[in-house]
Amino acid sequence: MQITLFRANMVGDAKNCIYPTKVVVTDADELKTAVSYDHVCAEYKSNYRNADNFLKSDCVVMDCGNDHSDNPTDWITIENLDDLMSDISYAIATSRHH
Fold it and tell me: Which of 8, 40, 58, 63, by CA, is between 20 and 30 Å from 21?
């Protein structure tokens, strides 16, 4: 597995759009360290995140909000993700709201 993230030098600043630090993640410990900062999963021109500055990404990001159902048995969970994507490599980083 290899995922390229870009992280900020801060945590929790909703107004931040600057992600200057490139991190190439190859294992769980590197992922844990990288996502402990505000981060994005794409490279942006001048490290400034907005739609016009998007350059590239080497991964697909998904959110399991589970707002499609009020029934917990319908929800996608960390525990059942392997059953749903058994032939796909993936990494999980939960949000601070998880």
Answer: 63
